[in-house]
């Protein structure tokens, strides 16, 4: 299933790389794309809790998840 997360606090390509790596490290998450201008990350998550785990990973990386 495709998921989308709105992210606050990304300001540069380093931020994009950090968020992308954090999401790609989650088992069952693939096809991660992070758009700096829109402040959005999209990905495919195969586990039932993929979205919640992804939100947690983004927060742990130092960014805010916009509900």
Globular, elongated, flat, extended or rod-shaped: what is the shape?
globular
Strands of the largest sheet, in order across it? 2-3-1-4
Mean pLDDT level: 96
Number of helices: 2
Model regions low in confidence, pLDDT < 50 over at least 5 residues: none
Percent range of helical residues: 25-40%
Number of strands: 4
The succession of helices and strands, N to C, reads EHEEHE
Work out the radius of gyration. 10 Å
End-to-end separation: 19 Å
Could you give a short account of the major beta sheet?
A: 4 strands, antiparallel
What structural class is derived from the secondary structure elements?
Answer: alpha+beta
Strand content bin: 25-35%
How would you portray this structure in words?
The protein is an alpha+beta fold. The chain contains two helices and four strands. Strands 2-3-1-4 form a four-stranded antiparallel beta sheet. Strand 2 and strand 3 form a beta hairpin. The longest helix has 12 residues.
